Queue: 4 jobs
Job 1
Amino acid sequence: MAASDPAILRKTVSRLYDAFREAVDSIGHIARIDVSIRQHQTMSLVCRLTEDKPNGVTLKELAEAMKLAPATVSELVESLVRKNFLQRVQNPEDRRAVQITLTEYGQTLLDECTQRVDSLCADLLNGLTAAERDSLLKGLSKVTSSL
């Protein structure tokens, strides 16, 4: 491994993060809303977790999945509830428990963000040859697995 390999990876991850943030920000400007990357990540995670739990996810489960303190996640959820992206639904089996789900509006916003980011990724991949693309995607899959 060359001495510059970690620096190249760090720069690439940083530039991708910035590009993804710009793609998410562009949705916010179109819809006249303010969505941070952390809020987008929270919405994405709620969406993914509720695939297996359609009634919603608890704050504790969300905090554990995000590896954040429940108080921090609670603030994130509250800000997203105020923006009508997430909703709290009473658990039918335990009236004291609350489940968190995406609202229809939140799902629409998330779908738009995903389309923008996918379009950005497709544009980046289209600049590569088939062999370069295959090699990059295989390498990224290994990196992702090691995380």
Note: The first helix runs from residue 5 to 31.
Job 2
Amino acid sequence: MNSQFDIILLSLKVACVATLFILPFGTYLGWLFSRKHFRGKSLLDGLVNIPLVLPPVVTGYFLLIFLGPAGYLGRFLKSWLGIEIAFTWKAAVAASAVVSLPLLVRAVRVAVDSVDYKLEDAARMLRASEWNVFFRITLPLSANGIIAGAVLAFARALGEFGATIIFASNIPGKTQTIPLAIFTYLNQPGGEAKARILVLISIVFSYLSVVANELMLRRFRRVEVSQ
């Protein structure tokens, strides 16, 4: 039987990798939605945010269709690159990343929206490239908001259940994260005590994430007021 310590470590590993994986994409998408106007923007915005309103099991089903052993992309990854995603810890990462990405994108968009356009325009007047404008002005001024969004995405990844159980399954020692272990223990005779411990640990992690998110938002608001 997989120990609770291993379950916690796996959950933290999945949440950390998922958050780090979506951080550059989420930051770019948030900046894109905030600063650029282009054809199809609403469609892309809807596609990014649809996991927020879809049942997680539906998200997991679509991941299985595309990245599963018989999926469109899954077959290519397995036959050409030897990479298997479904029913591994990587599948748990993918599921957590997909459901967490919208939260990060929305936080980044709000953070970038708060950065004064005049500061960016002044840099452009001094012939700074768009690359320099982003990395020297936009990113530093919105950093606390972005970090707050990353913390929120981490918390969401840590608690992901529906998409994970469909795409990664519930394999002890391999894909069984905290939510999946709680589900398993509650369906076992005498497993309620073990489930209760993991529930308490989940509450602690969630609380710490919320506190960290609030602290970063406060710092972000102070920076915004000082601009």
Note: DSSP finds ten helices and no strands in the chain.
Job 3
Amino acid sequence: MTQQVPSTEAGLTGVRNFRDVGGLPTADGRRVRPGVLFRSGHLAHATAADAVFLGSLGLRTVFDFRNAADQRLEGPDVELPGVRNVNLPLSDPADGAEFWRMVRDGDVDQLRDILDGTKGTDRMIASYRAMVTERTDEHARVLGALADDSLPALMHCAAGKDRAGVSVAVTLLAVGVERDAVVADYLESNAPHRRYRVRRGGNAETAHTPEVMELLSPLFDARAEYLLAALSRIEEVWGDFDTYYERGLNLTPEARERLRDHLVH
């Protein structure tokens, strides 16, 4: 489905879409601490040099939001000494073997059938909205762990865009990071050196035509409307974010304050 292209981030060659979210502004004029919370694509293809760099970050926890199909496709994360790996599968916007088979090998008529018009965008929006309502237990575990003893931490999924994007956003908003800054960080996954590339069967002339790539673009883009749909869904269901954290994720005010102390200065 996707293939990796060497990354320029921190000299990493086998890990895509890596970045430190430190420095993002909060509504009360503070900043997220650098070197505490990182995000990326999967670590399955990390080189030995990549592992040395990741090991230098002092990580205590890696949260892997991939599902079993992702792990069969890409492999397990490399092991980092002294780092706890927590696998919490989240909803994949492109979940389903048949759907991915079509993305990988389908001809243009088949792709039109599943992605034409707004179908691709609608699929992504529905998945993002489901992630915040159907995966509250997983997000609760992440925030609870971060509030206790799991930092510094790295969050990742396959591409580091959708599942990691929602989880990072939920974490940052919990500690008061400005919404515009959260969205801007999410959109950084579109940078050319961070993006995953579509890998399809067949030759380049037929497999990667402009029409095919346009049909596939909703699946591989980070679009503000996706993340904003998730945030709007939180407000629809819980009324406001404070209620979402306290009742939806069972994050007590005391735990949320500990999380803020850990992440913000």
Note: The radius of gyration is 18 Å.
Job 4
Amino acid sequence: MAKIILGFSGEMASGKGLAVKYIEEKYKASSYRFSTILRDILKVLCLEESRENIQKISTVLRKNFGEDLFSKIMKEQIKKDKNEFIAVDGIRRMEDIKYLKEIPEFKFVYLEADVEKRYERTVKRKENAGDENKTIEKFKKDHAAEAETQIKDLKQYADFILENNGTEEELFRQVDNIINEKK
């Protein structure tokens, strides 16, 4: 069977992480997340893993080492991975897929969901410090941050677009359909 590499993008809490977790569990996929590098740096620096700090570290690294830095890192990690299924979470800008698109097995998936649904998910999952106390106004304001502004533009480059306003099972069926199409 051919290798399948799916890269996921979408606005905050659109379901990227859930889709990746599903692929990890059902298909025994390897997974990579753009923010892992940034979270690791924050841990080493003993700084809070807040959305704001993640964005600051990302901006500093990209300004000093190139906008495509994370795409280069991700491509090298994926090239070394022998797993049949690979999922990549957190693509945020065109530069993030620059080198990934050079991998023939790579397919780009964009997830979309209504802002109210995404807000509910953010508060519920508490992934970043302060998420559980976030208001819908603050959530909407977070979308104006530099790290978030380019995400919507990526939709036009997607190989697949998934709508995720329904149940988890509905999302999983859509993911299965992509994988079955690629097998």
Note: Residues 51-65 form the longest helix (15 residues).
